[in-house]
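ok trying this again, last paste got cut off
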Amino acid sequence: MNNNIVKPNFLILDCLRGIAAFYVVINHCRGNLLIGGSELAKITPIDQWSIWTKIYYALLRLTSLGTEFVVVFFVLSGYSIAYSLYKKPILKKFYLKRLIRLYPPYVAALAWAALVFWIIAKYLPSFNLDLKSVFDNWKSVAYNMFYVSEGAYISQFWSLVHEVIFYILAPFVLLRRRFYYILSLLFYTTGWLIGWNELTGGSILTKFLFDYNIYFTIGIWLFHNYKPVRKVLSCSKIKTYLVFAFLFVIMVVLKYFVGEYNKITPLLAAILSVFLIINFQVNNIHTKALLFLGAMSYTLYITHFASIKIFNLLLFKLNFAQLNENIINPFIWLVGTLFCVVISYVFYIIAEKPTKLVLTRLRKPSKDL
C-alpha cells in the first residue's frame, strides 16, 4: 500500500455525514417553517422589533449554509470511494454494492414524497398549488428512477444525481488519476471564468463538470495524500473546534454579502471538509448522538423535505401555525427538525438498515464502503 494512504475510520466519517445531513435539515426547516426577516419586516417594521427579535434573526444566518454542507457530502464521497477503488474491486461487485446501498432507501424516500403529496392533495389541495407528484406519470417515474428528480417535495434530490454520476465514472477516471485532477481543475476554473458568483451549469452534466465534480476530486486527492496533509493540518481537539467555528462564521458572513449562489463559500466548505476529515479521525471525535445521526444520514437527507411538508400540514390542521414561511412562532421550526429526525429513523429501520445488513454479508472482512 502507498505510504501516504491510511484506511479511513468509517464510523468517524459517518459522524461527519450526520452533521452535514442534520445541518441541511435545520436549513430547510428554518426556511420552510419560519417567516423570513424581510417578510416579517413587512408586517412589523424592523425599528419596532425587540432587541431579542433582532438578535434571533441575526443568529438565524448561522443556518444559511445548506449547499455548503452538501459539499461536505461530495468530499466525503470522493474520499470514501477512492479507498474502495484503491483496493481494485471487481467492477460488477463495486456497482452492485453501490446499488444495494443507495437504491432501496431512495425508492422509499420517493414513495414517502408521493404519499405526502397525496395526503396534502386530499386534505388541503391549495397547498400543492401547481405541483405534481413524483409518480405523476410514467415520465416522472422514469426520471426519478434514474435520479433525475421531478415532482414535489424532493428538492434536496438535486445532489443525488451528481453522486450517481461520480459513482459511475469513478472506476474509470481513477485509472488516470492525475489526468482526472487536471481535467477537473480545468473545468472548475472555466466555471469561475464563466461566472464566479453563480452556478454555471445549464444542465445536469454541465453542473457536474463546472460546479460539483471538483469536490469529489478533492476527496480523492485527500485520500491519496492523506499523510502529508495530516502532517500539515492535524491539531488538537479544541483547535479543531475553534477552526471549524472560525471557517463556519467566515462562510456565513461571505454568503450574506455574495449571495446564495456563489463559488466562494462551497470552495471554503470543501477546504473545511478536508480539515474535518483529518482532525475528526486524528482526535477520534464522535458521540452517541453523532453516531446515531451518522448511521441514518442518508435516509435523513432524502426523506426530510417531505416530512417538513406533512409537519406543516399537521400544524395548520391543528391550528398551531400558518402555512410555510408565514409561520411567525420562532420555535416551531425546531420542533419540525425533531419531527424530521423521528420520521427518518422509521424509514432507516424499514429501508436503509436492511441494506447495511445485506452489505455486511457481501463484504470482505475490511470495510470498503
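PB: full thing came through this time. The chain has a mean pLDDT of 92.
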